[in-house]
Amino acid sequence: MTEIKNNFRVAAIQTVSCARLDENLREAGLLIARAAQAGAELAVLPEYFCFMGHKDADKLAIREMPGSGPIQDFLSSQARQHGIWLVGGTLPLDNDDPGRIYNSSLVYDPSGTRIARYDKIHLFGFNKGQESYDESVSIRAGENPPQTFMAPCGRVGLSICYDLRFPEFFRALGQVNLIILPAAFTYTTGSAHWEVLLRARAIENQCYVLASAQGGKHENGRRTWGHSVLIDPWGDIVDSIAEGPGFAIGDIDLQRLSDVRASLPALKHRTM
Known about the structure:
This protein is of the alpha+beta class and 272 residues long. The chain has one domain (7-269): Nitrilase/N-carbamoyl-D-aminoacid amidohydrolase (4-Layer Sandwich), CATH 3.60.110.10. The chain is 25% helix and 30% strand. It has helices spanning 21-37, 70-82, 167-171, 187-205, 254-263, 266-269, and strands at 7-14, 42-44, 85-87, 91-93, 102-108, 114-119, 125-128, 131-134, 148-151, 154-158, 178-183, 208-213, 215-217, 223-225, 228-231, 237-241, 246-253. Strands 1, 2, 3, 4, 5, 6 and 17 form a 7-stranded mixed beta sheet that branches. A 6-stranded mixed beta sheet has the order 9-10-11-12-15-16, covered by helices on one side. A hairpin with an 8-residue loop joins β4 (91-93) and β5 (102-108). The longest helix has 19 residues, at 187-205. The relative contact order is 0.17. GO terms for molecular function: hydrolase activity, acting on carbon-nitrogen (but not peptide) bonds, in linear amides. This is Nitrilase. It comes from Pollutimonas bauzanensis. InterPro entries: C-N_Hydrolase, C-N_Hydrolase_sf, Nit1/2_C-N_Hydrolase.
């Protein structure tokens, strides 16, 4: 049974990933170590932390079967080595569709045991001028319901990037103390909507939100917004980082959570 702690330190790790798996894993390992040294008991990597290819289909070459592979081995060993809870951003997992992968977020406990999995269900599409994206070309939408797990800060809900735009998804998680969102928001959409959407999800669900992002100019020409952040249940920013590798860090304070919910019991006032 997981012991609940009144203060639980968490970190949102930010990377600028490239098309070389080994280099990305090495960079992630260094950032995980730095976050753990700063007191993080739970760390979250960003979406695509392990690989940002030149073409959508490039990720198919590094897909792994669930339960085995160098990316999963890396995540398990990092959680065990540092004695932390580790949310592995996303990685490509195999399924019965040879042309598409699941974009999956895996959670490991301090023993290195995988305890949760969420496959991204909302696939990003955007087309404006010369900028165009269609995740459904290489990604199969997950068929799983919203996923949660228990950590020392209480119940934690899992989400990925584009999920952020669908508030009903987060309601379906039930009452959680922390929402985790690894992402690779584009510079265009991130500069317009990233912070306001994250703060809205924290305020309306009266919980902490920890969002880890890709943040910078990638070798494939893509530019991501970054601004990894921890937001409290009142919508206040606890810590953030703008661009470049690094991390945002802060505490999940259960007293703060309780005070917000007691002073404005919106969750109890819901009628639907």
